[in-house]
Amino acid sequence: ELSPGRLAEMGAASRQYPGPVLLVTGAQDEKYDAIARAWLPALRLGCHQVVSGGHAPHVECPDELARCIEN
Question: pTM for the complete prediction?
Fold first, then answer.
């Protein structure tokens, strides 16, 4: 569950994950962009990419999101 109420606890748990993590947020989604930026320092191999769009980049800008994931 990725509800906002659980994100802080998930961010803390992510410190234990040793693999790469790609955080993708939409440029117009200030709430989840801030959450991703807060998580980033805790990730061992973390990367944060901002794509155009808002809360649903998989719907709003799927091609841009796909390029982000491929790279």
Answer: 0.77
